C-alpha cells in the first residue's frame, strides 16, 4: 500500500470543498479549509503534497496561500482556482510557482486529473531529490557510483587492496569500471601522492612493448638514438596500471614475470638492472585461466598477478544501480553541455532499467550523454534514448505496478508499446524507407507518418550511414 496523497483544499464555498472530498475519495487524504487564514495555520503544522486554493477569498487570498506553501515546502504543488477567469491572475500564479489553474465552473473529472498530475509531479521531484541525496551519500567509492550489494562488496575489496600495497588483478566485462577501480585503489593507497601510470597493453605494437614498459639503452635497436626510461621507471613510487594484460605477447610476459619477481628492471639492450618500487594493478576482460589453458598466457605470471583478484560485476546483475548511474550521468553531462535537464520521464527510466547493457556502464553513459544532447525539453523522454532499448524492453510494467492500473489504461499502454516496437522493427527492416514500410504494413503512407510522429520516431534515424 502506498501512502495516500495529502491534499489541502481551500475555498470559502462549502460546495467546492464537498466536491473535492467527493472526487478525491480514493488514494487521497483530503483536508479542507474555508478561508485563507485557516489554510495558513494548517500549512504551518501539517505536510501536504498538493494544495488546491481559490484565488479570491475574504481575508487571506490564494496568493498568500501560494506564498506560504512555496516558502515552507517548495516541492508541494499548488493548483489555483479562479472564479472570474482572469487570465492575468492565472499567469501571475504560474509565475509565482503554481503548477496549474482551474477555471470555475470546472468539470469534476478534469479537476481530479489536474490534482493527480500535480501529485505525480511532486512524487517525481521527491524521487529525484532522494537520488541526489543518495549520490552524495555512501553510494560511491572514489569515482565509482553504485549502491547495490555487489558494488558494496567491490568497494570493500578495493579499500582492502588499497591498504595492502599488493598486486591486484581486476576482472570484468568491457565497460564495468576496471580503470576507475584501478584509479580508486591508487587514490586510497599510501602512494596517492606519486604517479598513476596507465598502460594499455593491447594498444602497444608488439615490437615496442618491451621498450615502452622497461625503457631502452642508446643504440638498443634502429631508431634508439638516445637512452629512454620506460613506464615502470616513470611510475616509480606510485602505481602502474597494466590494462588489457591478456594482450601482452608471450615473450613480454616472461620479462614482466621476472620484473615482478625480482622487483628490478633491465632496459632493453642494457645489462645492468635497477630496483623499482611500483605497485602493479592489472586488468583484463578475458578469462585468464582459460587463456592459460589455451597456452596464450603464462601460468607463472597468472599466479603472480592473481594475488588479490577483484571482479567488477556486469550492469545487468545489478539493475538497481541503473537509476542512480543514470542520474549521475545526467547531472554530469547536463553540466558539461550547460543544458537545464532535470530528470527522466518514468517510462524512459523504465526502459533504462529493463535493458541488458552488453556494453555495461560505458554504454549506459553513452546513451544518457546522447539523450542529454538531443533532448528538447527539461526531462529525458523514451524517444531521446537509443531505439534498441524500447524494442528490447518488456511490453508491460512489473506486476505490482500493473495491478494498480485501470484495465483500460493497461490496454492502451500495451497497445502503445507494441505499436512502437512494431514500428521500430518495421523501419529497421526497410531502413527508413516509409513507402516500402507502409506497403508491407498494409497502411497508407500518411498513416504511417502519423504513427511515427506520435511515437516520436524519425524515419531518418533508420537510414543506413
Ligand atoms: N561504477 C561506475 N560509476 C561511474 N562511472 C562508471 C562506473 N563504471 C564505469 N563507469 C564509466 O564507464 C566508462 C567505462 O569505464 P572503464 O573505462 O573504467 O571500464 P573498463 O572496465 O576499463 O572497460 P574496458 O574493458 O572496455 O576498458 C567510463 O567512462 C567510466 O567513467
Ligand atoms: Mg578499460
Notes on the structure:
- 48% of the residues lie in helices and 14% in strands.
- With 465 residues, the protein is of the alpha/beta class.
- The chain folds into three domains: 5-135, Response regulator (Rossmann fold, 3-Layer(aba) Sandwich), CATH 3.40.50; 142-311, 3-Layer(aba) Sandwich (Rossmann fold); 319-462, Helicase, Ruva Protein, domain 3.
- The strands form five sheets. A five-stranded parallel beta sheet has the order 2-1-3-4-5, with helices on both faces.
- Helix 2 packs parallel to helix 3, helix 13 (322-336) crosses helix 15 (360-374) and helix 19 packs across helix 20.
- The radius of gyration is 31 Å and the shape is elongated.
- The two termini are 50 Å apart.
- The model has no long low-confidence stretch (mean pLDDT 88).
- The structure holds adenosine-5'-triphosphate and magnesium ion.
- Adenosine-5'-triphosphate binds at residues 144-146, 172, 174-180, 285, 325, 361-362, 365.
What is the compact description of this entry?
The protein is about 50% helix and about 15% strand.
Could you outline the blueprint of secondary structure elements for this entry?
Elements: E1 5-10, H1 14-23, E2 28-33, H2 36-45, E3 50-54, H3 62-72, E4 77-82, H4 87-95, E5 100-103, H5 108-136, E6 140-141, E7 144-145, H6 149-164, E8 168-171, H7 178-187, E9 196-200, H8 209-214, H9 231-234, E10 239-243, H10 250-262, E11 264-266, E12 273-275, E13 279-284, H11 288-293, H12 299-305, E14 308-311, H13 322-336, E15 343-344, H14 346-354, H15 360-374, E16 379-380, H16 387-392, H17 399-403, H18 407-429, H19 434-441, H20 445-454
Parallel strand pairs: 1-2, 1-3, 3-4, 4-5, 8-13, 8-14, 9-10, 10-13, 15-16
Antiparallel strand pairs: 6-7, 11-12
Helix pairs in contact: 2-3, 5-13, 6-7, 13-15, 19-20
Magnesium ion (MG) is lined by residues 178-179, 243.
Amino acid at each position: 500500500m502506498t501512502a495516500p496523497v495529502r491534499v489541502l483544499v481551500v475555498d470559502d464555498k462549502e460546495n467546492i470543498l464537498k466536491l473535492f472530498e467527493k472526487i478525491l475519495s480514493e488514494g487521497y487524504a483530503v483536508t479542507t479549509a474555508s478561508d485563507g487564514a485557516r489554510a495558513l495555520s494548517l500549512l504551518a503544522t501539517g505536510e501536504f503534497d498538493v494544495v488546491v486554493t481559490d484565488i479570491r477569498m475574504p481575508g487571506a487570498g490564494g496568493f498568500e496561500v501560494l506564498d506560504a506553501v512555496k516558502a515552507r515546502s517548495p516541492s508541494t504543488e499548488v493548483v489555483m482556482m479562479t472564479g472570474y477567469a482572469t487570465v492575468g491572475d492565472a499567469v501571475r500564479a504560474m509565475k509565482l510557482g503554481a503548477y496549474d489553474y482551474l477555471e470555475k465552473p470546472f468539470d469534476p473529472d478534469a479537476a481530479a486529473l489536474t490534482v493527480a498530475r500535480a501529485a505525480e509531479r511532486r512524487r517525481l521531484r521527491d524521487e529525484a531529490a532522494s537520488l541526489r541525496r543518495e549520490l552524495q551519500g555512501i553510494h560511491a567509492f572514489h569515482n565509482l557510483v553504485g549502491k547495490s550489494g555487489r558494488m558494496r562488496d567491490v568497494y570493500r575489496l578495493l579499500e582492502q587492496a588499497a591498504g595492502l600495497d599488493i598486486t591486484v588483478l581486476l576482472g570484468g566485462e568491457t565497460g564495468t569500471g576496471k580503470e576507475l577501480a584501478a584509479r580508486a585503489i591508487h587514490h586510497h593507497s599510501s602512494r596517492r601522492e606519486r604517479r598513476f601510470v596507465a598502460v594499455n597493453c593491447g594498444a602497444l605494437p608488439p615490437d615496442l612493448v618491451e621498450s615502452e614498459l622497461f625503457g631502452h639503452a642508446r643504440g638498443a635497436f634502429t631508431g634508439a638514438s638516445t637512452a629512454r626510461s620506460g613506464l615502470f621507471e616513470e611510475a616509480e613510487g606510485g602505481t602502474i596500471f597494466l590494462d588489457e594484460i591478456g594482450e601482452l605477447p608471450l615473450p613480454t610476459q616472461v620479462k614482466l614475470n621476472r620484473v615482478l619477481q625480482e622487483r628490478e628492471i633491465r632496459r632493453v639492450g642494457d645489462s645492468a638492472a635497477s630496483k623499482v618500487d611500483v605497485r602493479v594493478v592489472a586488468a583484463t576482460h578475458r578469462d585468464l585461466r582459460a587463456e592459460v589453458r589455451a597456452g596464450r598466457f603464462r601460468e607463472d605470471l597468472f599466479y603472480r598477478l592473481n594475488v588479490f583478484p577483484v571482479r567488477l560485476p556486469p550492469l545487468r546483475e545489478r539493475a538497481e544501480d541503473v537509476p542512480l548511474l543514470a542520474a549521475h550521468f545526467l547531472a554530469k553531462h547536463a553540466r558539461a553541455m550547460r543544458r537545464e535537464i532535470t530528470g527522466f520521464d518514468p517510462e524512459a527510466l523504465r526502459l533504462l532499467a529493463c535493458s541488458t547493457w552488453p556494453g555495461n556502464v560505458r554504454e549506459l553513459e553513452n546513451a544518457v550523454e546522447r539523450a542529454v544532447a538531443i533532448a528538447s525539453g527539461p526531462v529525458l523522454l523514451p524517444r531521446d534514448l537509443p531505439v534498441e532499448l524500447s524494442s528490447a524492453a518488456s511490453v508491460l510494467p512489473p506486476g505490482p505496478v500493473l495491478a494498480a492500473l485501470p484495465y483500460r489504461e493497461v490496454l492502451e499502454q500495451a497497445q502503445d508499446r507494441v505499436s512502437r516496437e512494431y514500428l521500430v522493427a518495421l523501419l529497421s527492416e526497410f531502413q527508413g524507407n516509409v513507402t516500402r514500410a507502409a506497403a508491407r504494413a498494409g497502411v497508407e503512407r500518411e498513416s504511417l507518418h502519423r504513427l511515427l510522429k506520435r511515437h516520436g520516431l524519425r524515419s531518418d534515424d533508420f537510414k543506413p550511414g
